[in-house]
Structures are given as C-alpha cells and as structure tokens.
Amino acid sequence: MAKKLPPPVHPGEILREGEVIRDGLRPLVARDKAVDAWLHDQVVPAAQALQADPSRGLTVGEVREQLTRERAARRGCPRVNEISGQSSG
C-alpha cells in the first residue's frame, strides 16, 4: 500500500499510512454527516407533511412550469409568462 501513496509534501508532514487514510476519510465523514442532517432536518419533515396532506404536492406540469419560470428569470428573459404558457393579460 505504501508504494501507491504519494510522498508527503514536506518531509515529516505525514508519518504513517494511517494518517493518510484518516485525512482522506475526514471529508467523506463530514459529507455523510451533512447528508444525514439534511435528510433528518428537511427531507423527512417534507415527506411526512406530504404524506399527511397529499394536496400539498405539485403535479409534474406544475413543477415544469415553475422550473421554466425560474430559468427564464435567471436568464433575464422578459417574456417569462409566455414561456411558461401563461398569458400576460
């Protein structure tokens, strides 16, 4: 395994293979914690609310219209309503 590891940037900076592995795992552990927190804090409550009241959900068409309006707004498109299929008058 040591042959596959790159040498430390500065001599003595990394002393053992275990330190290299731990340094590589830290960002993965942090990312996993962030994903777990997002699932717990946002996804689960949203799913529970939708399950309790399905009328809160959007149809596929509604989602597409909303995404089209948001994309057009980001591009500065002056005809956002026309693009999404809504008339302006």
Task: State the share of residues found in helices, binned by percent.
Answer: 55-70%
Radius of gyration: 24 Å
Which structural class is indicated by helix and strand composition?
Answer: mainly alpha
Structural domain count = 2
β-strand percent reads under 5%
**What's the helix count?**
3
Strand tally is: 0
The global form is elongated
Question: What is the N-to-C order of secondary-structure elements (H for helix, E for strand)?
Answer: HHH
Mean pLDDT, to the nearest integer, reads 82
Low-confidence stretches: none
Biggest β-sheet strands, sense, barrel:
none
Whole-Å distance between the termini?
A: 69 Å
Short key terms for the protein model shown above:
about 0% strand, mainly alpha, about 90 residues, 2 domains, 3 helices, single chain
Explain what the structure shows.
- The protein is mostly helical.
- It has helices spanning 17-52, 60-75, 80-83.
- The chain folds into two domains: 16-56; 58-89, no CATH class.
- 63% of the residues lie in helices and 0% in strands.
- The chain is elongated and about 60 Å long.
